[in-house]
Amino acid sequence: MSSGQSPRLRNMAMKSLTLTALLVSTAIAPVALAESAPVQYDANGDYLSTDHLYWTVTDPDENGLNCRWSEDMPEAWYAPDAQFPLMNVREWEVVRSFDYGTVLMANRTPAGFVTLNDDRGLPWLKVSIGDNDEICLARANRDFIRPLD
N or C: which end of the chain has fewer CB within 10 A? Predict the structure, then answer.
């Protein structure tokens, strides 16, 4: 603002800036709150539906945490009309293994949630492992992974 502006114009400009800052902070606040919501799990340690992005491997198995994928899954698995194979994920091929302490980034495609359920109703974390929504599935249970803050 130049010093040649009238006090009334400066006052209006300041009110406009204040209103803009308020609108921006109000729009951002729900996103920040969503990230800080605690991740819920059931009595068996299975994580409930969540959008939490970063996880750490807590599986003590010396072979690491298995991450599985089926060649029968469609390439565009995230498409609304995708036809999934039988979701017996525990029997799918192990395509990756993650050591204790490895940080995993979940995949939120397509609707913001990071888990899929298998044919038994158990949750599996969609782990990002490449470009173009390439993922594998790891059991979403406290025995194997924990959310990072």
Answer: C
- SS3 for 51-64, per residue? CCCEEEECCCCCCC
Note the pLDDT tens digit of each residue in 35-88: 557 899 999 999 999 999 999 999 999 999 999 999 999 999 999 999 999 999
Which of 143, 149, 148 has its CA nearest to residue 42?
Answer: 143
The structure tokens listed for 25 are 């902070």
Nearest-angstrom CA–CA distance, 70 and 141: 20
Distance (Å, whole) CA 11 – CA 101 = 55
| 3 or 38: which leads in pLDDT | 38
φ, ψ of residue 20 in degrees (nearest 5): -60, -45
Q: How long a stretch of residues is the chain?
A: 149
DSSP annotation string for 69-83: E-TTS-TTTTSTT--
